[in-house]
């Protein structure tokens, strides 16, 4: 029996993960900040690059502190995009991928499965609107695939040991796109 063209599995393979990704992103965005304090001190700080370092240094100095050991500058959109590109590139070593994700060693088997799945499938990313507050950064990420570009959704990164890493939630969303979920 011949399967109608609209029932072929290829379009479903990308749509289902994209729907899962969008749902995950909405869930993460909805649960990301339960802080109801609206005072100016608790308002999110939007900074990138050198401006973040200057603002952090000024704030630390004003609070009577010295140098902040191990604190990373707020990430740039380009830095975050480079991390996502590295994760989706099947030519990159698994150890490099493990190094840029939160709980990297725990996610190693998933990253290996995703790398194998991405061998003949290319995706790209457009990262915009980076916002950093403390040890968390959020950015809008549009995933580009052969089937088109998905609407941007918020992804998160965490600062660990002076380096920005893709958060576990965002890593799991990316892994889910390749059916290598957490």
TrEMBL record:
Pfam family, one: Mtb12_C
Low molecular weight antigen MTB12-like C-terminal domain location: 73-182
Biased composition (Low complexity): 43-59
Region Disordered: start-end pairs: 34-73
Keyword annotations of the record: Lipoprotein, Signal
Superkingdom of the organism of origin: Bacteria
Signal sequence range: 1-22
Family of this protein: Belongs to the MTB12 family.
Protein name in UniProt: Putative lipoprotein
Species this protein is from: Rhodococcus rhodnii LMG 5362
